[in-house]
Amino acid sequence: MSDNIQTVEVLSKTTWTPNLFSFTVSRPDSFKFTAGQFVRLGVNPSQLKHYKHADSQTKETAPDEDIFRAYSIVSSPFDEVLEFFSIVIADGAFTSQLQYLQVSDELLLNTTPFGFLTLARYQKPDPKDLWLLATGTGLAPFLSMLQDLQTWQDYEHIVLAYSARSLDELAYVEQIERLQEDFGALVDNPATLTFIPIVTREEVEGALSDRLPKLLTDGTLQKRAGIALDIDSTHIMLCGNPDMVEDTKETLKSLGLVMNRRGEGNIAVENYW
Ligand SMILES: Cc1cc2nc3c(=O)[nH]c(=O)nc-3n(C[C@H](O)[C@H](O)[C@H](O)COP(=O)(O)OP(=O)(O)OC[C@H]3O[C@@H](n4cnc5c(N)ncnc54)[C@H](O)[C@@H]3O)c2cc1C
Fold it and tell me: Which residues of 35-80 form beta strands (DSSP E)?
């Protein structure tokens, strides 16, 4: 096993829907990361103790070698454990195995943190309004940022728009609704968080229902957020489904914002596939 791969133990598991779950693992003492980064997690199917619960067809075809995938870290850089939020893809090599993990199972963690979807990338404009737009598990890096006190300290307004297909796929809502109190309250003059849930395939009271590009083009999102998009005061991050990321990015450009390059500019993105 390479030097930067360590074994971590599964400490808890939360099942949101048959296709969405979260879990925490032990955090190696030496492992450091910045909110918004991702790691590579690995499974060896034969090491998942409860793998016997997998259906027989998957079991027969399961490879016995380690499989690694990129996972954004949900927990804050200051937490004692590492938390992750995962999709289950029925025929996905990784998640068709990972879905069976149980407390006390072991996973592999590559302890090199990756990624530039971090707030430190913004040198210009100065921090004022932070927009975090996520679909599905793309919420993960934003939860890490929102549990970092520096984020609350640095911004005046934070808008979290989080889109899922159905209400039950809108995970972490209770935790999101407590963020202002749990983290904002710990700093002087904290940012004000506006949470905007979006549910695209069913009518849900209080949630918007259109895709992000439309909500931005017709101004619904800005109206709900109570602030405008402005080249001189907006930092805006997109994470999740590549179609959403691409279409939203183009929409934002048409509204006058620019990609963040070498520290300057408004828009930063991360695609999950
Ligand atoms: C930088 C980065 C960070 C990531 N962070 C996360 C994370 O925090 N949580 C997470 O669940 N996944 C995350 N992913 C995706 C993850 O790496 C795997 O693709 C996912 O675990 C599925 O693996 P798989 O082998 O089962 O299927 P794969 O063969 O990897 O994917 C099969 C197909 O499933 C779909 N798919 C893959 N991932 C997702 C997803 N997250 N949501 C919806 N559809 C998807 C796509 O259509 C993809 O083509 C991240 C990817 C990248 C590049």
Answer: 38-43, 67-72
Looking from the CA of residue 71, the nearest atom of ligand 1 is 5
CATH of domain 119-271: 3.40.50.80
34 CB within 6 A, ligand 1: no
pLDDT digits over 44-90, tens only? 877 776 554 455 444 444 567 899 999 999 999 999 999 999 999 99
Could you tell me the residue ranges of all domains in the chain?
A: 5-114, 119-271
Peptide bond between residue 127 and the one before it cis (omega within 30 degrees of 0): no
C-beta of 86 in contact with ligand 1 (< 6 A) = yes
Q: Which residues contact 12 (CB under 8 A, 6 or more apart)?
A: 23, 24, 103
Regarding the beta carbon of 83 and ligand 1, being less than 6 Å apart is answered no
Task: For residue range 208-246, list pLDDT tens digits in order.
Answer: 999 999 999 999 999 999 999 999 999 999 999 999 999
Q: Which CATH superfamily is domain 5-114 in?
A: Translation factors (2.40.30.10)
